[in-house]
């Protein structure tokens, strides 16, 4: 499971708890935490370098997971 969350995310605490619960259940989980990012910031990839980074990390995770 791969989770990306920003500091300004409405669901920050939910994302952290999900990560904790998944890990406790033995799920292979990775959390990437982005400072100052809001909900769905990757949607703004044309304007935000952090969004482009997040999209690239997601693509990398998907590629790793399918090999």
Distance between the termini: 15 Å
Mean pLDDT across the residues is 94
Neighbour order of strands in the largest sheet: 1-2
- Rounded Rg: 12 Å
Task: Based on the model shown, name its key terms.
67 residues, alpha+beta, two-stranded parallel sheet, 2 strands
What does this structure look like?
46% of the residues lie in helices and 15% in strands. By secondary structure, the chain is α+β, with helices and mostly antiparallel strands. The protein is flat, with a radius of gyration of 12 Å. The protein contains two helices and two strands; from the N terminus they run βαβα. The protein has a two-stranded parallel sheet with strand order 1-2.
Task: Write a short abstract of this structure.
This protein is α+β, with helices and mostly antiparallel strands. The chain is built from 2 helices and 2 strands.
Task: Write the SSE topology.
Layout: E1 2-6, H1 12-24, E2 30-34, H2 49-66
Parallel strand pairs: 1-2
């Amino acid at each position: 499971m791969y989770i990306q969350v920003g500091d300004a995310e409405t669901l920050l605490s939910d994302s952290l708890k999900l990560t904790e619960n998944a890990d406790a259940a033995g799920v292979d989980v990775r959390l990437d935490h982005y400072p100052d990012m809001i909900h769905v910031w990757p949607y703004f990839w044309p304007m935000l370098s952090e969004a482009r980074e997040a999209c690239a990390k997601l693509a990398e995770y998907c590629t790793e997971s399918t090999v």
